Structure formats: structure tokens, C-alpha cells
From TrEMBL:
Residues 10-117 form the SnoaL-like domain. It comes from the Bacteria. Pfam families: SnoaL_2 (PF12680). It comes from Desulfopila aestuarii DSM 18488. InterPro entries: NTF2-like_dom_sf (IPR032710), SnoaL-like (IPR037401). This is SnoaL-like domain-containing protein.
């Protein structure tokens, strides 16, 4: 697959992710996909690795946390071969009124037209403040 095709698949995945289209999002993932949310020693509940089933759970959890949806806006793209890097900004308002507005870098590795690996880098202090400290 060429870089532009891979970039489009990643764009489609994140669109389906924020739309809470679980089956549509999962259809773009390789069966052995791993999503690695960076964070040392699992210090946050969302750091560590997720398999395909856990990614489905994440999509549902995001929908539940943001009843009016959360947006993910791409800021910049780099694609080369099977590697797609995308910078994104999130914005959503939780059910309790708290604003979540984070910055991300995702490195996505494609395998035979499917997403095989996602590495997620984010502001973990903001995640902790909004999802851990407020609970």
C-alpha cells in the first residue's frame, strides 16, 4: 500500500473512533494490533498496551465520558511507506462539564493495509488531572 492510502486508513480509523463506530473502527485493525499508550510503569490507568478487544472498550469508554462526543483534529501528517505519523488535538466536554483538550502524536504502523501498531504520545499530566484526580 502506498503512503497516501495508509494515511487515509488512519484518518478513517480516527473518524470512526470519535463517532463511536466500534465495528467500523475495528475493521481497520489487524487482528494482532497493539495500541501502546506511552507512560512509565503503568502510572496512569490508560498507559500500557491494548489489544483489539481493549481498543473496542476504549472507544465505548470515550463515548461514555463525552456524551456530546470528543473531537480529534489532525494538525500535521507525515507518511512514508507503512509508517504514518499524525499530530492531533482533542477537545471534548465530559458529562460533568470538565473540558478535555489534549495534544497527541500518534505513530501508526500499517501491515497489509491494516493498522498493526499505534504508539500514542500525549500530555499525561492533563490526562491525570481530568480523568484521575477528578474522580
Amino acid at each position: 500500500m502506498d503512503s497516501e492510502h495508509n494515511k487515509e486508513k488512519v484518518r478513517e480509523f480516527f473518524q470512526r473512533f470519535v463517532a463511536a463506530d466500534v465495528q467500523g473502527a475495528l475493521s481497520l485493525l489487524d487482528e494482532s494490533v497493539v495500541w501502546r499508550a506511552m507512560g512509565r510503569d503503568g502510572g496512569l490507568p490508560m498507559s500500557g498496551e491494548m489489544d483489539k478487544a481493549a481498543i473496542a472498550d476504549l472507544i465505548v469508554a470515550v463515548k461514555d465520558a463525552f456524551p456530546d462526543s470528543m473531537n480529534l483534529t489532525p494538525i500535521g501528517w507525515t507518511a512514508e511507506g507503512g509508517r504514518v505519523a499524525v499530530e492531533m488535538e482533542s477537545f471534548g466536554i465530559k458529562g460533568n462539564g470538565t473540558v478535555y483538550n489534549n495534544l497527541y502524536h500518534f505513530l501508526v504502523i500499517m501491515k497489509e493495509g491494516k493498522i498493526a501498531l499505534v504508539k500514542e504520545y500525549m500530555d499525561t499530566c492533563h490526562v491525570k488531572k481530568v480523568f484521575v484526580d477528578e474522580n
